Amino acid sequence: xxxxxxxxxxxxxxxxxxxxxxxxxxxxxxxxxxxxxxxxxxxxxxxxxxxxxxxxxxxxxxxxxxxxxxxxxxxxxxxxxxxxxxxxxxxxxxxxxxxxxxxxxxxxxxxxxxxxxxxxxxxxxxxxxxx
Amino acid sequence: xxxxxxxxxxxxxxxxxxxxxxxxxxxxxxxxxxxxxxxxxxxxxxxxxxxxxxxxxxxxxxxxxxxxxxxxxxxxxxxxxxxxxxxxxx
Lengths: 131, 90
Prior knowledge:
The complex is a heterodimer of chains A (131) and B (90). Chain A is built from 3 helices and no strands. Chain A is mostly helical and 131 residues long. In chain A, helix 1 packs antiparallel against helix 2 and helix 2 packs antiparallel against helix 3. In chain A, 35% of the residues are buried. In chain B, helix 2 runs antiparallel to helix 3. Chain B has one domain. At the A-B interface, helix 1, helix 2 and helix 3 of A face helix 1, helix 2 and helix 3 of B.
């Protein structure tokens, strides 16, 4: 009975990790790849760690596994947000079929001036406007 | 098929194949942001491999390494994102 639970958890976790791998290879955009990294990989690794916790059936191991899962759940969105903000400021293009860009013109991109002339509402010198 | 054999012959090849896919993105990656995301995902999948391996070898001590690896991956992502904001564009 225990082994059936472990097998189900490990299989689901491995499938979600495989989904994350396929997603980061096939997604057309940096930001969509970041979404895959944040969600599918976190769920897959959490399920694999849950399989380990069920297998050992021990208080100290379960505490350790819960600490790892909570840490990943806390840090994956923070890291993805930092990376998305940094890559938007650096000037990575969105996918050309993206519907909307809410940050259009909010960040005066320093790398945009070799592709098109400077926008009129962008401030000189500062890359990040005060909000 | 025992649990150890199932983990060894089914789960670990699936996870290793996904590591291979992420590594292809790491090599191809058009921008440096894609490469940093790929490194982050590599370390995250490595935590999963450590979990499966600790079940397979019946050693719960490996999970400590997974905790430290998660910490280092987060610190690396924060540092990389800070540095690619600050670096001079060519």
